[in-house]
Amino acid sequence: MFIGLCIVTFMMVSGCLSHPSVIQFTGESKTWSANYTITKLNREDHISRLQIRYKGKDPANVGKIKYKFTGTTMGGSGEQKLSGNRDIVSGSGGNGAIPLEDSTIQVTVEWKGHKEEMELSTGASRK
């Protein structure tokens, strides 16, 4: 009986450790919305994905946009043309530090002489 209980407990703990966990930061401005998703694959490795979405009616007229994002432990930037697609997606992976759930990520989007900023958060309370 005891050995069976130990085996079941081990299987449950092993199963829990192998499932990825996800932290999602979200925010929006007048014209854009964004989310930054971190998927922790295990204790060391993670995948990060930034998605910026145009909220307007005609993404083909937006043209080229520049974006920048910064957090306490990460950041990046890029340029991409919206050609009928509302979304810009950027991803990376690694085993470095990740933002704390109660931190924020600043996102700046520039296009056709306009500039908007967003603050992304998880909704977790700050300590």
Q: What does this 3D model show about the protein?
A:
The protein has 127 residues and is mainly beta. It has a domain at 20-94 and 105-113. Helices cover 13% and strands 50% of the residues. It contains one helix and eight strands. It has one helix at 2-18; strands spanning 21-28, 32-40, 46-54, 63-70, 75-82, 87-94, 105-111, 114-120. A four-stranded antiparallel sheet has the order 1-2-3-6, with no helix packed on it. A four-stranded antiparallel sheet has the order 5-4-7-8, with no helix packed on it. A hairpin with a 5-residue loop joins strand 2 (32-40) and strand 3 (46-54). The radius of gyration is 19 Å and the shape is elongated. The N and C termini lie far apart (45 Å).
Instruction: Determine the number of helices (DSSP H or I, runs of at least 4 residues).
Output: 1
What is the global morphology?
A: elongated
Helix vs. strand class: mainly beta
- Main sheet attributes: strand count, strand direction, barrel closure: 4 strands, antiparallel
Summarize the structure.
This protein is 13% helix and 50% strand.
Main traits of this protein?
13% helix, elongated, four-stranded antiparallel β-sheet, 1 helix, 8 strands, mainly beta, 127 residues
Topology:
Layout: H1 2-18, E1 21-28, E2 32-40, E3 46-54, E4 63-70, E5 75-82, E6 87-94, E7 105-111, E8 114-120
Antiparallel strand pairs: 1-2, 2-3, 3-6, 4-5, 4-7, 7-8
